[in-house]
Amino acid sequence: MNPLYRSDVLKALEQIRPYIKADGGDVELVDIADNGMVSVRLTGNCVGCASAGVTVFEGIQSALQGQLAWVTGVRQVE
Length: 78
Hints:
- The protein has helices spanning 3-21, 52-67, and strands spanning 25-32, 37-44, 73-76.
- The chain is α+β, with helices and mostly antiparallel strands.
- The longest helix has 19 residues, at 3-21.
């Protein structure tokens, strides 16, 4: 994982983390693939939540791609 990319993603996640924590959840960075795919793990109340997919794709992915042009997508891992 490129340290510069990791730092950029962590900064972006910090900006959206309060919204996720407001519902009792959190997000952690798992990996950044060479092709720009970011893997995240949702924790807390987000685990098993019916809205987890919406959080990942409409929230996290939108935020990351809006700030980091090299991000090609976000996937949730268990």
